[in-house]
Amino acid sequence: MKEDETYNYKELHKPSSEFVNRADYLEHELSIMSPRRWRPNLPGHDYRFEYEDWVPAVAATIGKIVMVAAVVSTFAAPLGLSNAFVIENVRFEMIIAAVLFVILFSGFLLPSANLAGTHGPLIPLIPLIVASGGHPMALGILIGVFGFALTLFKGGSLLARLTGDGVAGGLLLYLGFVGVTTQIGKLFSWADGFDKGYIAFIVVMFAVIMYAYLEHIGKRWLSIPIGSACAAIIAFVLGAPFEFTTEPSLPNMNPAYWWGETTGWQLGLPSIEQFIAVAPFAVLAVAMWSPDFLGHRIFQQINYPQSARKVIMDIDDTMGVASARQVVGTLLGGGNIASSWGTYLVPAAIAKRPIVGGAVLTGILCVAVAVIGYPIDIAIWPPVLSIALIVGVYLPLLEAGMQMTREGKTSQSAAIVVFSSALVNPVFGWSLTMLLDNIGIIGDKERCSQLSRTDRWIIPAITFAVLVSVMALIGMFPGVPALLDSFRQLA
User: Fold this and answer.
1) Domain coverage including residue 167
2) In total, how many domains does the chain have?
3) By C-alpha distance, which of 399, 389, 400 is closest to 64?
């Protein structure tokens, strides 16, 4: 970007009073922003804080608490670590993410990169990783190394470019539908646990009506704060149990404590054998990034005006920051597995705000919550958590997927993505359908005819073959034994 292109945000800025409505003002702000890579981006000079920035900041903080707790607790359970360890590591991770990466990179030096969040799709594989002799430090370092390699060769943006609208739309539909049904199921399981299942029904019904009304009046970006607050109030008034248990404190900031043999993770440093054990999982984790990042960027493109392309998330920058965050966080002692921060970017896109402003607020909130402690109890309370994820992430993903698959030529690819993702997982569905879509078996024949031979089938075929091999090694195909187990038996 040339220097004269980053010139005059201050000159082009107009007060909101000069616009007919708030949406026009926000779209104008997006259009005149020109974020500077690897140079300071300052409030007033390159962007402004708006009250809409608090929406993704609150949503991201809730999502961060929940997702990091899910990752760390899934590691901790088979290792025999206590709930107190999980809470302390979550606090540690939130401070690392906020100070070193959210504020420094996305909020200051690299506003083209989405915040480095948590790799939710990998959580179900963590018990298998531990059972295979994996070590959290070995896994985190390899994910970061493989992520840097993909970033160096701009592999993320390449795979995103080769993913057609039908494939991307199908992914959004699948992830949105599975997310909604999963959260509703968890909410009912929670309420049934104390014999008041009707609380879950009432909370979800309120969320449906609230979301529809906010859509009607064009205020959908308010769905997370209103939905979460009302869900908490309704559940508490109807008798759902709740208590504060996490008191104010600071976590241990010493990496030697976390990676000690009798303290923290109580694992010591990893061996070469443990690095080898986690290598297939690390490859799969990084392969999962491309469809995940692509879905987040597409959501921005759908919600932002055409003239706001300079504030769209850069996939390669995001991969680089996620890789750095993974390596640094792991070496310091954290248990998080990094990815693009969906609970931040999706609400930010709905609220028509860029990455940069809300990133600073997210960092501040994460540090405050980690130190105070009590908000962690509220954020992980099932009615607050589930409703925030449903109205803030999964329903918007469903809507975006539907918008992208209106035409027949895209709906074919979308259907195959959903079908194959349900058979194995979204990574398998994405890689298989990208291959079929690009060689012209399904989808937009005109699009595939414009691709080069390398883009049309060589890269998609190699991607599919590598991912299928890795998934076969670790046993991700239903009914098919893991090849690694067979190799161990032969050895």
Assistant:
1) 51-254+273-405
2) 1
3) 389
